[in-house]
Amino acid sequence: MGDRTNLLEMYAALRQAFGHRNWWPAQSPFEVIVGAVLTQNTNWDNVEKAVDSLREAGLLSPSALSEAAPQRLHELIRPAGYYRQKAGRLQRLARWVGEHCIEADSELGALKWEPLDQLREELLALNGVGPETADSILLYALEKPVFVVDAYTVRILGRHELIEPDATYGDVQEHFVHRLPPDVELFKDFHAQLVEVGKRYCRKRRPRCAECPLRPLLGEPVLEESDEA
Length: 229
What we know:
Blueprint: H1 4-18, H2 29-38, H3 44-56, H4 62-67, H5 70-77, H6 83-100, H7 109-112, H8 116-124, H9 131-141, H10 151-159, H11 169-177, H12 184-200, H13 215-218, H14 225-228
Helix pairs in contact: 1-12, 2-3, 2-6, 2-9, 5-6, 8-9, 10-12
């Protein structure tokens, strides 16, 4: 897949199959940031339980979250797993947001005005924030044109030999960024579409290739024996 047209055709096929995904579900940009940490190594149902608990406790603001007692935070986010590590990550991020925005700025406008490269560098410098988490925050919370790469994306492109077997996160990200217009809404929905086709069809085990909406466009994937087991 070497040009913009093919990627846009791929997106169009997914959009026709699933409709607009309207992802990421959150009531505020700061809630997106919280969800980006909580979703590490767990499913979204667990994230929603933890976010609901934080909301009920009045902790979905930078100041309240950064000042919360660690033990209290552990209990509230326990459904999302790895609650001790995630509590520390959440509080570091809350303090980082607080350093850039006044508390009344619930839309994080001050951060949105800062350059993408600077924000990404600062996020990656925070312990526990990797490229996928940082880019999720940049795209979905701060409206920056950066493409989020996750395991679904790598699996789909890898099975169809659209990326090299040893492709890095940056390699996969460039595959999209260099072939698509820098459109925040396109990047959001394209990423969400890939997640959906990965969950429904391009599964890690026993993929449903015959029913996949990408099959007419991309053809038959290359599968390992372990994929089909």
